[in-house]
Amino acid sequence: MPLSQSEALLLKCLEKLGGKAEASSLASSLKQPVNSIFPLSSLLAEKGYVKTTEIIKEKFELTEEGTYCAKHGMPETRLLRLLSSKGGTVPLDALKTVLKPTEISAALGWGRKAGAIAIEKGGTTPLIVLKRTLNIELEDVIKKLSKDGEKSALTPKELELVSVLGERGLITLKETKQLIVEMIRGIRPSGGVVSNVLTSDIIKSGQWRKITLSPYDVTASPPSLKIGKKHPYLEFLEEVKEILIAMGFEEASGSYVESEFWNFDTLFQAQDHPARAIHDSFQVKGVEPYIDAPEEVIKGVKAAHEYGGKTGSKGWGYRWDIMIAKRPILRTQTTAVSVRYLSTHKVPPVKTFCLSKNFRPDVIDSRHMVEFCQLDGIIGNRNMNVRHLLGALKEFTMQLGFKDIKFTPGYFPFTEPSIEAYAKHPKLGWIECLGSGLFRPEVLEPLGIKFPVLAWAFGIDRLAMIRLGIDDIRELHTSNLESLREKGW
Prior knowledge:
Elements: E1 3-4, H1 5-16, E2 20-22, H2 23-30, H3 37-46, E3 50-62, H4 64-72, H5 75-85, E4 89-91, H6 101-114, E5 117-120, E6 127-130, H7 137-147, H8 156-167, E7 171-183, E8 193-195, H9 200-205, E9 212-213, H10 232-246, E10 250-251, E11 257-259, H11 260-263, H12 295-307, H13 322-326, E12 328-330, H14 335-344, E13 350-359, E14 371-380, H15 386-399, E15 405-412, E16 415-425, E17 429-439, H16 441-447, E18 453-458, H17 460-468, H18 481-486
Parallel strand pairs: 1-8, 8-9, 10-13
Antiparallel strand pairs: 2-7, 3-7, 4-6, 5-6, 11-12, 13-14, 14-18, 15-16, 16-17, 17-18
Helix pairs in contact: 1-3, 4-7, 7-8, 10-17, 12-16
């Protein structure tokens, strides 16, 4: 059976190495990467010229900390060495000269447990006293592993000590696959060497008469190359940003983990509002409850909730609890970013947007996700009204290419009047895509804002569904390349 040039070279190299060799040795001799030996040896095995054997070897490798200990000695070794050189007694602070801060506690614990040291009171700092010297067996093992980490080379006693090194994070066990390639005696290549390369030199020298060329189909089509490109959903989001920036908006951003104060309280949502129940927001553990807001803002929000503050309204008429406001949650709306922005931009005009993720424990279906993207925006200036709001929204949606948009009255705790918008999906019909309105005085007054502010929040994922022609919101996040290509994305 004829061989390719690469197969013939490998077989010739194997013969020079005595007919049997590891893949790494063959790769070194051929000056090729070791991963190229695996497919070539597999082809030779199929043709009956060699046999291959895979061996799994276990090897211990030192971590960065383990390498340091192999070079400088185990912490306990350095501790005993210091004590011996200083006459058997050193102050606790002196340990910093030979031990890293993270090693001191462990070294002292080992020394006391082994009876090698004692800690005694002395002046302003405790004294470390040497009681007896010990042979640190771990020292010998880690030095041996730094030279040869083969598990099979260790004695049973050394294996016991190795487990201690592993617990201390000084070593890790790695599995390596080794391939042994062995020639089958008495079998020689037949049919010559097949070459898939025909150069001008081979033609001029006449060498082409001595080689066998692999068949070449001139009618075959070249392989299809898939060009990499951005996900269409990400392209849509970038287009949204470009339009808003061209309209004079400034982009703002904020943290995913937010306090209920900025997510709900500043937006005049009562603390007993259904949206604040645990089933409508994700509570976050492991984060210290905290409100990063000026004291006058906190007091203003409290007053607005309890009796309306200086706005003239009656508020919600309950006792506002600052501990509830401090609770950390995953942000449920990018409007939290808008009010944060307002708190530091009190001079009109104000024009900003935030396009980012939010999180709500919703039931996942064709229109809802637990994690979703929201486009939030505000426009603040003197003498602004609903007509300005509708004009800005109409301009934005027209630039995005959406013509079928209708507006209806709505209700939100933090805007008055409030407006909802619906966009027409070719399959799903009219779907809600926007909530908007003018921020209520109870929102603006605690922040120190003295001018009207228009606010709106698009469910940008739903607009993306219309633009991309899909009827399931989950398809926006697919990474299935075949599915993306089928859609022509």
